[in-house]
Amino acid sequence: MNQDRRTFLGQTGKLLILSASAALAWEHVLAGTPENAPNYNFKDHWWGMAIDIEKCIGCGTCVRACKTENDVLLEDGNFRTWVERYVVDPADLDHPRVESPSGGYAGFHEREVKDTNLKMFFVPKLCNHCDHSPCVQVCPVGATFESPDGVVLVDKTYCLGCRYCVQACPYGCRFIDRRTETVDKCSLCYHRITKGLTTACCETCPTGARALADLKDPRDPIHAFLRDHKVQVLKPQMATGSKMYYNGLDGSVR
Amino acid sequence: MNGVEGFIYPNEIELQWSVLIVLYPFITGLVAGAFILASLERVFNVEAVKPTYRLALLTALAFLLVAPLPLQIHLGHPERSLEMYLTPHTTSAMAMFGFVYLWYLMVVLVLEIWLDYRREIVLKWRASQGWLRTVYGAMALWSDNISDSALKLDDRIGKTLTVIGIPSAFLLHGYVGFIFGSIKANPWWSTPLMPIVFLFSAITSGVACILLLYFVTCWYRKVTVDMRCVDTVSKYLFYAFVVDFTLEMVDLIQRIYVSDESFRALDFMVHTKLFTSQIVVQILVGTVLPIAMLGVTQLVRMKEAARRAIYVMAGTLTLIGIFAMRWNVVIGGQLFSKSFLGYTSYKMEFATREGLLPSILLMILPFGILWVLIRLLPPWGHDEQPNVKRA
Amino acid sequence: MEPRPSDYRHLVRMAGLFVVGITVFLLLRSFFVPKNFGLLGHYNPGALQQNMDHPLKFAGQAVCVACHSEQADVRAKGRHARVACESCHGALASHAQGDNPSTVKPQKPDPRTTCIICHTASISKPKAFPQVDPAEHAPEGPCTACHVQPHSPKIV
Q: Which of A129, B47, B91, B168 has the fewest CB neighbours in a 10 Å radius?
């Protein structure tokens, strides 16, 4: 290399490094001091839910409560939570007949069922608030994330509406809210649980089939639930780290 | 419920990604394929394809400029799309792709075209008047050094760029494949073969596109077609297509053999909802037929006119087939429920934001841009053999 | 022929363009990235507050019981002990919060349709759950005709 070229490269390099550092420093200056910590301490909580299939009666109260609490546009086909009914022939577990009329919003009509050998039950579903969430993994900008207390949330001021997360969720719990043109989903009633309340669906479930669980609270019934029941998560083969623990989940459930 | 059969999760009724998202891999595929054809000449010294070299670069640029548009139109908040560059999530293939795209556009394509054309740009700058003079001046960065030593330097750098550009082109479209292939929730997409299948179908479509454009531009300019060139391009098209088809068949055979939980639902979907677009359009008309036609030209001696006709037909069918492949991947992947118990339907509208009309316009736009680029930077006449004008 | 320094001029200018571009990008970044982005993870920590700031529609039964302790005691003795107030009475945060609860008068749940939602017999429901066919089990009239006290519905 001749002298001129070397000098030129050196000067360009220095200029580049200086401008980059200046910009970064300015960013920190603008960022200011960290936010004041809210009263609620994230580190004390790790949220999940205990769902008992054996108790669910398919009344749909949870779906209606969620709609009320979170202003969900069910009529747009948006469901933060829904209930499915399974009708399973024990001789043919691979082909359950499943339905979810309006997500179970108005409960389920009685069906004429002649074969009393069939197995039937209801499965409430919602966002699984996965610990290794595939939806968080694919979000290109960081608009969906897992909070420090284990709730997967959406930043509606930041979401682009690219729908990659909707594709990545194995459970079908995400949708686009046309009012904000961003993604939306069950937030585990974050605005309630951070105030010491329970979620709208768990509050109104008349049989206690759904119960909010704080895995970091030693007094929470979830520990006995997990110990005393055969529990499962949905689609365990996906290894999503789901925190919705189901008791009585049949093998035919999709 | 209209269009729904069996059971689907309640949020799955409406498809998330429309025909605009089908366009995107198709367009980036053309870019990658066109560039790889161009690199055949530059790096591997395949002299025969030289007449298509500059045309391929300009085509790649025209299509790459249009590539982000279908995505922007599809977004709920296009005004926030800069966020992908400001706070890219490094675990997201989509975010990292933004940088691959930018790298490819700015460092590979624009630089290479600039270095290759610099001499003509400066000459035109000197020869033009008015606003065109300003345009060419800006393109030359107001440096009019076209001495031999400067041009030699350009050539050296250009060659380096092409060498870097080949893996970059592979990365460009392989990444798009990875965007789909990495979604474990969707068994139609989730396969490690996806990036490679996308890459080879990209090469196939890009080569076919340049082949057709070469024929069209020769016809328009009333210039004879360089048979050695089109014979060679078609040969590479044939090889690329055979590899692509083999890979897709490997994927298919593996699925049928392994027959996992999703297989029955997907198999049913292919035989019903995707029958026309996949079996008929993609496989038979869009792959088997053009491969057979090109194979015949490789095995049997044919007159020039016959070969030209076959190349044009095969090239057209190839583009249709590769477009159908993108359609079947994107739309097909959303037609079945993740419960594997049901299906929904895709209702493509016409004159809406994500309808057929914007898609058609977006496919025409790159040709418009290409026309402007060809006017500004003609890809012929530089150091080509003078073509014999048709009588 | 070895390239002279002047042969690099156009390359230097192109490199300069790139430097300008990168600098602009970095400046944009500092303006547009939300405050403290990345502090807790790859997201804007302000989004946590955003998610906490939604209005409540359901008050939660603890609040109801605080004033309506009588009804709560009756309920505690019966089969509806675990049924939350708002399961039947609907979302009542507007009644419970605010200075004067009597400005929002909750509607009394319909004494038939409310009960039917849960207690309609269905082959799909768990067998142990109390359920009746509304067409046969007292087809006319309110359930409270016999199950006088809905908070503790046992017929005494």
A: B47
What CATH number should be reported for the domain holding residue A52?
3.30.70.20
**pLDDT tops 50 at residue B214:** yes
Count the Cβ atoms, other than its own, within 10 Å of residue A92: 10
Instruction: Please report whether residue B387 resides in a domain.
Output: no
Is A204–C125 a contact, with Cβ atoms under 8 angstroms apart?
Answer: no
Contacts of B11 in chain A (CB under 8 A): 77-79, 166, 172-175
Number of H helices, E strands in chain C: 7, 0
Q: Which regions of chain B does DSSP assign to beta strands (E)?
A: 5-6, 342-343
For residue B305, the model assigns a pLDDT of 94
Nearest residue to B293 via CA among B214, B244, B211, B238: B238
- The answer to the question of residue C151 being in a domain is no
Considering only the beta carbons, identify the residue of B10, B81, B84 that sits closest to A77.
Answer: B10
Tell the burial category of B323 from Cβ atoms under 10 Å away from its Cβ (0-12, 13-18, 19+).
buried
Alpha-carbon gap, residue C152 to B26, rounded angstroms: 66
Number of domains chain B is built from: 1
Q: For residue A28, what pLDDT is reported?
A: 39
Question: Using the beta-carbon criterion (under 8 Å), do B143 and C3 form an inter-chain contact?
Answer: no
**Strand A175-177 and strand A182-184: pairing?**
antiparallel
B386 domain-assigned: no
Q: How many domains does chain A have?
A: 1
**pLDDT at residue number A30:** 34
Question: C44 and C81 share a domain?
Answer: no
Count of the separate structural domains present in chain C: 2
Q: Are residues C131 and C70 in the same domain?
A: yes
Residue A54 pLDDT level (bands cut at 50, 70, 90): very high
Q: Which of B241, B245, B224 is nearest to B233 (CA)?
A: B241
- Which residues in chain B have their CB less than 8 angstroms from residue A180's CB? 76
Kindly identify which residue of chain A lies nearest to residue C43, measuring between CA atoms.
A142
List the domain range (segments joined by +) for residue C30. 5-52
**Smallest Cα distance from C51 to chain B, Å:** 20
Asked if the structure places residue C11 within a domain, the reply is yes
pLDDT at A189: 97
Report the Cα–Cα distance between both ends of chain C, in Å, rounded.
Answer: 111
Tell me if A203 and C84 make a contact (CB, 8 A cut-off): yes
| Residue A222 pLDDT | 97
The CATH number linked to B129 is 1.20.1630.10
Mutate to test the interface with C, among A155, A184, A194, A247 (most CBs of C within 10 A): A155
* Percentage of the residues of chain A whose pLDDT score is greater than 70: 87
Structural domain contains residue C68? yes
Has residue C156 been placed in a domain?
no
Q: The domain containing residue A207 runs over which residues?
A: 45-132+185-247
